[in-house]
Structures are given as structure tokens and as C-alpha cells.
Amino acid sequence: MTTKDIADTQSRDFLDLKDKTFLIMGVANKKSVAFRIAKVIEQAGGKVIYSIRSEARRESLGTLLQDKPVMVCDVEKQDEINQLADQLTKDGVTLDGLVHSIAFADYPEGIRPFHETTRSQFLQAIDISAYSLINVCNALKDLFARDASVVTIGISTTRMASESYGFMAPIKAALESSLAFLTKSFSRFSEVRFNAVAAGLLKTSASAGIPGYVDSYLYAEKVIPRGRAVQTDEVANTAAFLLSTRSSGITAQSLVVDAGMSINYFDAAVVDAVTSADVN
């Protein structure tokens, strides 16, 4: 074995994911955070069960997830959540962890001022993006190993009023807040942990569809000290750590992965570029 092979093996052993089973929800394509997390788990010897939104999504992922166990569950539909739990129970599955990488917001007219957010937009977004974590965990509670780990995907800050993210920051804030309450309620009968990877701006297919997101992504690259944006695999690696028993002392937390963006908003070069710009 080469030095790199030995290092890779030691890294996989460190996470201790071998022969453990994880449910991954939210794979849309090969650029998805959920898919990259699944690959880390599989490379470490763990087993992944994929849960995707629809039969159409299953067809589009046919090549990517070939020979993988794939189940369909639209989290807007309670009967499909129940069916997911029933099928996993029937299959005798014990879950060592769950990845919830699901978010949706409807912008039919593009990004509008926050105060113009409609009730239907907000409620649908919070149902899919936040309440679904609570609902799915409740449905699967009897399938979790006693020390299982649940990881969801948040954003690096819910206090930055970014116009390009529409009304999703308050939705993610609700998701983040639920981690403490899930940890507390599950502690009555288990040691299941609930954490989030609070990711900086990523180059994914989903994010590319958000109006104005690309410009924000390019700006982030200028603000990040190292001069390059956060990579999806960096988020995936952090999620794998939180799924592992190596993070057993961490729960009800949002672990920020932003490559230092939040410490560098007043970088001299960025400030100079803004103040020197012709605002007329």
C-alpha cells in the first residue's frame, strides 16, 4: 500500500462507519450534498439506503444509484413517510444515522421583498424544509440505534438578510432551532443526536436555480480568506464526522462550514472595491 492508501484507510477506520446503515434523504443528482455524503459513507464501508422524492427522480438517478437500495418518499405526503417507515421495519433495518438534506422554496415570480412572502409559499417551505425533519424522525424513532446520529443541512447564517435567498433563512432558522427540541424529546428513550452542517454558499444544481445566487456565490469567493468557495465535499466530510461516533459529545449544534467567510466581510480589498465603485 502507498502512503496515501494507508492514510485513506486510517481515515475511514477513524470514522468507524463500516457495516453501519444510514438513510440518506434528498439526493437529486451527482452534485447534491446528500450524494456526496453518501459516497463518503460508502467509501468508509457503511451501507446507504437512499430516499428520493418521486418515481421520476428514481428514473433520472437510475445510472447514478444503480444497484443501490432506493425508496421513494415525498415528505409532503404523510402516507409516503409512513410507508417508508413500514418498509424499513419490514426489512429489519436498524438505522445508525439519518441525513436530511431536503429544502424547497417556490419563487414563481422570482425573488420579491420578504414582506411580500405569501402564506402558501412560507407554509410549504417550512413543511418541506423544516417540519419534515421532525415528522420523519418521529416516524422512524423505533428504527434508530440507541446512539444514532441525525444530520440535517443548514446555512452558515440565518441572520444575514441576503436578498438572493428570499424567505429561506427564517425557514432554516426554524430547522436549526428544532435540533435542540428533538435532542431533548428523544433523550427520554435514547441517545440519538441531532446536528446540522451549516454550509456556506455551494455550487449545486439546486442553488443555481435561485435567482441572484450565482452573484452571491462569486462575492463569497472574494470574501473567503483563502479565495475559493466552500466545496461540497467539505460539507460532506463534516456531515460524515457528525454521523460517526467520533462526534458522540456533539448534539443540538449547527457546525458552520464557511471557510472563514463570516470573519472576513471587512477585507480591505473588498471594502476598497465597494467604496471605489461608481454608485451612479
Quick gist of this model?
The protein has helices at 3-15, 33-43, 55-60, 78-90, 119-140, 168-186, 205-208, 213-223, 232-243, 268-276; strands at 21-25, 47-52, 70-72, 95-100, 144-155, 193-199, 253-257.
Explain what you see.
By secondary structure, the protein is α/β, with parallel strands linked by helices. The protein has a single domain (3-202, 232-258), classed as NAD(P)-binding Rossmann-like Domain (Rossmann fold), CATH 3.40.50.720. It has ten helices and seven strands. Strands 3-2-1-4-5-6-7 form a seven-stranded parallel sheet, with helices on both faces. Helix 3 links the parallel strand 2 and strand 3 (70-72). Helix 5 (119-140) runs parallel beside helix 6 (168-186). The protein starts with a helix and ends with a helix.
